[in-house]
Specification:
This protein has 270 residues and is an all-alpha fold. It folds into two domains: 220 residues, no CATH class; 43 residues, no CATH class. Helix 1 packs across helix 6. It is globular and about 65 Å long.
Length: 270
Amino acid sequence: MIGVTFPRVLHAEYGKLRALRSTWVVFGTVTLLTVALAGVIGWNANRLPGADHTPPGILGRAFLGIDVFSLVLGVFGILAVTGEYGSGLIRSTFAAVPARLPVLWAKAIATAALAAPVMLLASAASLVVSQSFAPSAARLGLDDPGVGRAIIGAAAAPVALALIGLGLGALLRHTATAITTYVLLVLVLPALLGGALPDAVRDHVLKYVPVAAGAGAVRGAERRQPVHDAEPRASRPGHGRLGGAGARGRRGGVVEAGPVTGPQWADEPA
């Protein structure tokens, strides 16, 4: 007789999620809408004079769609559990695996394993598409320092929301109740705390809100990004890819011109 082991439970849960058509419909829709919104925002921003080509502006435009559509991943996590309760499939699962925790851990790992690559792809594609309308000299490369961290940070928030939704679904076992609780926890509660908490503690509390926590990695990467300007690289007499005249500093909104000997970082004085 074949014993029940955690790898077998994980393989079964991963197979169930992967076999569902709704899984790929959700991931495909979220990816397409996220990348499309990044493209629309990038096109609209770059067709205007004086577009913001600093790293915060570039990354903010690229990942805005992820902030919007990542909430859908939480609903996906909820349905991954409550759907089985509604169909009765959960009874067969717990009959085969009487212990509840291995099943829940396997569902969480399977959900993250499916969602993480999709959201990493969506984040990288959003950055590329959003910048496709900008001057070539003002674009961030995927290999630039900190860009990888920004992409990972943007992808981490949707995965975390999917796991939060899965946990709520396992606790409440009812789709409508779990979705209502999820919306209150992720959207309504942070807004209420922002208005109710005193200034001294508000920022310290709100930075642990799931969406804000995911954005923290992106903001950290922004502080380490070399600042680009819109001058073509071929006309820059400076050293390296970002050297030359006209490097733009961000501290205090001051723009300084003149030759430089290396990249000007956004968190250092020019």
